[in-house]
Q: What sequence folds into this?
């Protein structure tokens, strides 16, 4: 009798264990079914986009039921092509690209719905360290700029003009070098000044190749420099996904704003394996110091208007772009409530 009782207890124990396992599996499957996969194409891999990587590493997207499939598409044209051809659901790229697409009269415009950075992210690097710096020192110099028509070059020219310098008359302007080769060209001896993103600018300072003398971000003012955007058709069908996506970004923006540069650097270090953590920290601190990271995802109309002023000054604004047609702040304003 005792033996039969023991066998029955073992049998029921096995049944209970099996039920618990099935329940766990069912729960896991349910959790996976609840998550929405969102394909994000970023224009480049940059410390400038620190909040995005924070949102992934801190699990802010997962908290909102989203699995992010992030890929780097290297360049505004490629990123926009990826979005328009349905190779991505969301693009992280300069807002000027949405204006270019809108000017072509598409029936499915690209809409900006969340801002990540709010200034230009480049710096003016001089080959020789001056005792003091004045923008007038650039007159008569050779300036190694960024690609024509891109936001870095437009913001750079806008800044120069604000300081009384005509980049096409007062200096020798070089802008026919591929983006990836600009640092190497300067390091090899081309140019007296160069416009560089981080961490290259700080790295050149460490190596004594050049010296940061000014910030184009500070000089050009607030801009929707890098924003999240999607096609209007995707937005209409997936409004709830974009709402939750934007909430995750806002959480990350608050994290970067309220935590030390060191904490942020250590968190995003896996995305920059070839860059020392102390250099990442320096870059984050520099961007925080000039308020390049947006503290919320709302793309305000004043910034949008400034963007068009920058594009117009560079001769790159195809036509005036309606803020209400190319910007949707519904998700960003909801996220900040």
A:
């Amino acid at each position: 009798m005792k033996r039969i009782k023991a066998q029955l207890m073992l049998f029921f124990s096995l049944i209970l264990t099996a039920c618990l396992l099935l329940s766990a599996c069912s729960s896991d499957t349910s959790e996976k079914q609840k998550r929405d996969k969102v394909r994000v194409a970023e224009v480049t891999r940059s410390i400038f986009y620190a909040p995005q990587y924070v949102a992934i590493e801190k699990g802010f997207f997962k908290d909102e039921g989203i699995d992010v499939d992030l890929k780097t598409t290297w360049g505004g044209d490629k990123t926009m092509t990826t979005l328009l051809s349905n190779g991505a659901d969301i693009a992280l790229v300069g807002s000027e690209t949405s204006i270019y697409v809108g000017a072509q009269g598409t029936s499915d415009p690209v809409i900006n719905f969340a801002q990540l950075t709010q200034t230009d992210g480049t710096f003016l690097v001089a080959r020789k360290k001056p005792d003091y710096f004045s923008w007038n020192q650039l007159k008569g110099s050779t300036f190694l700029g960024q690609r024509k028509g891109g936001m870095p070059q437009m913001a750079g020219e806008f800044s120069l003009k604000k300081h009384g310098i005509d980049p096409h008359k007062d200096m020798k302007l070089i802008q026919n070098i591929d983006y990836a080769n600009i640092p190497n060209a300067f390091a090899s001896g081309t140019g007296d000044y160069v416009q560089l993103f981080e961490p290259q600018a700080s790295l050149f300072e460490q190596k004594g190749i050049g010296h940061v003398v000014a910030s184009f971000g500070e000089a050009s003012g607030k801009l929707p420099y890098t924003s999240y955007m999607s096609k209007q058709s995707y937005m209409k069908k997936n409004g709830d996904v974009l709402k939750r996506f934007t909430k995750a970004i806002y959480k990350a923006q608050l994290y970067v704003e309220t935590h030390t540069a060191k904490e942020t650097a250590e968190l995003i270090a896996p995305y920059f394996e070839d860059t020392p953590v102390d250099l990442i920290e320096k870059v984050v601190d520099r961007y925080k110091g000039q308020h390049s990271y947006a503290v919320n995802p709302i793309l305000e109309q004043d910034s949008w208007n400034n963007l068009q002023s920058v594009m117009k000054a560079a001769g790159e604004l195809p036509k005036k772009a309606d803020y209400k047609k190319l910007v949707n702040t519904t998700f960003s304003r909801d996220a900040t409530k």
